[in-house]
Design goal:
The chain has about 100 residues and is mainly alpha-helical. Strands 1-2 form a two-stranded antiparallel sheet. The protein is globular and about 25 Å long.
């Protein structure tokens, strides 16, 4: 029952993120869209280790991380302890925003 609830919560969070976030272009040619981090969702929301595709996307989206941190809808997810563990595992330094 608890596992089903977590899956439901994760699905809801993913759906909310898809609906509430706009794509924001940055100077480096990266299109900032939090949906690009979907391979990291399980790692962000649990103690699962990040996949190689998660790390690749996290590195790709690094120029966007400050924007995600400033967004009140996303801040709690991208600054969570699990998100920090994912960044460390992927060797992606947290930006100074």
């Amino acid at each position: 029952m608890v596992k089903v609830m977590w899956v439901s919560v994760l699905a809801l969070v993913a759906a909310l993120l898809l609906v509430t976030v706009e794509k924001i272009p940055v100077a480096e040619g990266v299109t900032c869209s939090v949906t690009e981090l979907s391979p990291c969702l399980a790692a962000f929301m649990s103690s699962s280790p990040p996949s190689a595709s998660c790390c690749a996307k996290l590195r790709e989206q690094k120029p966007c991380l400050c924007g995600y941190m400033r967004n009140p809808s996303l801040r709690q997810y991208v600054t969570s302890p699990n998100a920090k563990k994912v960044s460390n595992s992927c060797k992606v330094a947290s930006p100074n925003c």
